[in-house]
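Our consortium's second objective concerns turning raw sequence data into structural hypotheses that experimental partners can test. To show how far this objective has progressed, the report includes one record in full. It was chosen at random from the queue rather than selected for favorable results. The single chain below, 200 residues long, was entered without modification.
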Amino acid sequence: MKYTKPKQERSRRTEQKFLEAFTTLILKNGFAGTTPDDIAISSGQTRAAFIKRFGSKEEALLLLYSRYCDEVLQTLECFRASLNQAENIEDILRRISQQFEALLTNYFPANRAMHKFFQVDLNVHPLTKSIFLNSVDLMEKIQSHYLDGAEAKPQGPWSAAQLLVTINFNFVMKSMPALPPEASRRHNLVVKILRTALLE
């Protein structure tokens, strides 16, 4: 079913209760271990109301994930718009890495569920592709703005975008425990990796 944004305040509150309960349950039981009945009980609503609003838990997950993607795309646009301000390449790469990690952390349940949900068929959701392509675009702008044209290589932004997304995603998903636990050391390492990638 196609999602339609609720128009009435009461409907918006009901939707938010469902999504908050769903987020908590994904974190506790995982996506597969969470049912519409669980969500209804946890939110104090009915299963029928959940199905009427979302159609399925898959659609509710896509809504949660799309909210994450919207925030990421807005953040990338803000970075693109601020490139002309006085800031060196290390500082802006550090801020980008920190923001990515923060957004992934805030939307951890949705990201973990989406990863497992689409990993079954090795699919990449179009929203995920959009984040990656927008990250490549930002890295191209950074490369052009901060690095000498003779140094810059066309594949650099693609490598840097892949590393930015992959390192932060896997750290937040607890798949890279060997990375420095201290945020400053971790992001300084990411900065060195991204800067190197932009020159390769």
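The partners drew two points from this record. The CA atoms of residues 68 and 106 lie 9 Å apart. The chain has a mean pLDDT of 90. Both points have been shared with the crystallography group to help prioritize constructs.
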